[in-house]
Structures are given as C-alpha cells and as structure tokens.
Amino acid sequence: MTSISLLKQTIGYLLLFMVLSNNLVGANSNNFQNYSKKQGLAHTHVLSIFQDSKGFLWIDTFGGLNLFNGSTFQIFTSKYGDTTTISSNPTNVIFEDKEGLMWFGTEYGLNK
Questions:
Q1: Which pTM value belongs to this model?
Q2: How far is CA 19 from CA 23, 31, 50, in A?
Q3: How far apart are CA 12 and CA 6, in angstroms?
Q4: What digits encode the pLDDT tens for the residues 41-56?
C-alpha cells in the first residue's frame, strides 16, 4: 500500500469516526415533547407556529389559535356573531409588531 493510499484510508476512517461519534453524542442533545388534544391542544392538525418576543408559542390549528406558555394551552376560537373573538379558525398569518402587539390575519379580517 502506498503512503498516499494509506493516508486517504486513514482520513476516511477519521471522517467516518467523527460523523458517527457526532451523531451518537448529538442524538441525546435534542429534547422533543409531543403535545396532542390530551395535553390541551385544540386540534392535532397544526398549520403554523410563531414564537413571540416573550417566548410564548402561538400555534395555529383547525380547532383554533393556541397560546402555549411552556406548560399549558390557552385556546382562542371564532364564535359566529361575537366580535370579541378571533374572526375565523384557522388564521392565515401570525405577526408581532415592534410594540409587541400580536396580529392575526384570517380569511375574514385582521385581528389583534
């Protein structure tokens, strides 16, 4: 075996070792938690997720708009004829302006 072949083989083994060891170490670094209706999510079909400046998650589903504070869900739903509720389920756009106000665009209008 020539020195170049040996060098290529050694580099290949080192790269393989680095990739495998990184995957093994990295496999435990992600902590995923699944949420469903059982934990309070309005619907399991999630359309979009937005994290606001306070760290809260706004989760848009067919069942309504969900505000998740890290432990519990607060659900906002449309109620026909009630102008104090969001104008439609689901929302199309979730946005936070520079003053921290949340805006929600639906097929029936803009809500804040």
A1: 0.71
A2: 6, 21, 33
A3: 10
A4: 999 999 999 999 999 9
